[in-house]
Amino acid sequence: MTDVWYPGYTPDTPCEEWQGARRNGYGRINRRCRNYLAHRWFWEQEHGPVPDGFELMHTCDNRPCIRLDHLRVATRAENQEDARAKGRWSNGRLDRTHCPRGHPYDEQNTYRNPNSNWRMCRRCRHDWRVTH
After folding, report:
1. 40 in Cβ contact with 28 (< 8 Å)
2. Domain spans of the chain?
3. Which of 18, 23, 32, 85 has its CA 20 to 30 A from that of 40?
4. Angstrom distances, CA of residue 33 to CA of 30, 36, 62, 64
């Protein structure tokens, strides 16, 4: 972490938690009339931009943490696999057996994106494609 003092920072925990504005648990920072995720902004000040197709993963699993050695560059699939392995996966709702319209998530009726574990009901996917 840089030696620069900034508002909202408190070094009282193993993580360096952003104490300013937050959204969905992640620190938010405004610089030059632009909003940034605080952890990403600090990372980019030290290491430069995150490469296209990658994101930052909190190895500490603490969303407001901005400590640079608690962050690493990863693909979305790696980040999601890390969340699943640690029992933090909720966005994928993989525990659901039926789609919101009541169709079963079974082998025949489930489309899986080949680049991730994202899934969709084949029936709903078909209906959506017909109407769009």
Report:
1. no
2. 1-91, 96-132
3. 85
4. 6, 10, 26, 21
Residue recorded with tokens 């979305």: 76
CATH number of the domain located at residue range(s) 1-91 in this protein: 3.90.75.20
Q: Can you tell me the distance from the alpha carbon of 115 to that of 94, in angstroms, rounded to the nearest whole number? A: 16
Q: How confident is the model at residue 5 (pLDDT cuts 50, 70, 90)?
A: very low
CB 98 within 8 A of CB 104: yes
Predicted TM-score of the model (pTM): 0.60
| CA trace torsion 112, 125, 105, 78 (10° rounding) | 30
Q: How many CB atoms lie within 10 A of CB 5?
A: 6
Cβ proximity of 122 and 105 under 8 Å: no
